[in-house]
Hints:
Number of strands: 11
Helix content: 25-40%
CATH architecture of the largest domain: 3-Layer(aba) Sandwich
CATH topology of the largest domain: D-Maltodextrin-Binding Protein, domain 2
Number of helices: 9
Largest sheet: 9 strands, mixed
Oligomer: single chain
Distance between the termini: 45 Å
Structural class: alpha/beta
Number of domains: 2
Radius of gyration: 20 Å
Amino acid sequence: xxxxxxxxxxxxxxxxxxxxxxxxxxxxxxxxxxxxxxxxxxxxxxxxxxxxxxxxxxxxxxxxxxxxxxxxxxxxxxxxxxxxxxxxxxxxxxxxxxxxxxxxxxxxxxxxxxxxxxxxxxxxxxxxxxxxxxxxxxxxxxxxxxxxxxxxxxxxxxxxxxxxxxxxxxxxxxxxxxxxxxxxxxxxxxxxxxxxxxxxxxxxxxxxxxxxxxxxxxxxxxxxxxxxxxxxxxxxxxxxxxxxxxxxxxxxxxxxxxxxxx
Length: 262
């Protein structure tokens, strides 16, 4: 009787995990995370990837991915909020061990030692819902806001494909998005996930242009001559988390589509 009861509980548990598909592994290794080596992670305020929740705790897709990856590797993650435009200086000086915050690998693969990619992201343009702007070509007469040091800023300043009147770069993506409330600003550009988070507050106020700027791979950046062994191990762990469904579940938890990002 006891054996039948045990089997029933076990089967129920397995079925529940299969149905939900989002069971994050628990630590059964016996490791004490408090005694683990620290991994100092540089990140900024960039919801839904990394931000402070209403209890002032670190939250977000990248935060949860980092916690789980560090747990598997035997590290204790320590998140240090930085000014994104100072990321390279802080990384080189050793103030942070890596940069983990929706960071695009594209065009930077020779500049850093990378772990990943672990997600994909689209760079898109958001405008007011009643805006006359329908295509990227119409940005030529518009002021566009971006985050300083990001791929969108680099893209527009290059002026190779899309012209704008002015590009205004802000220290945080939150500031760049808030600037669209100014009537003189016609559009804001950046990662689709971050802009979707902003649109949730006023779902009927904004829309995306149909054509994306470009797509990017997201990775974790170490300094060029950094810890290659750790970077390789982190790449393998992030790949494992994609394969076992952990990454997809975390992405879905924050309201984004895993099918588009994996």
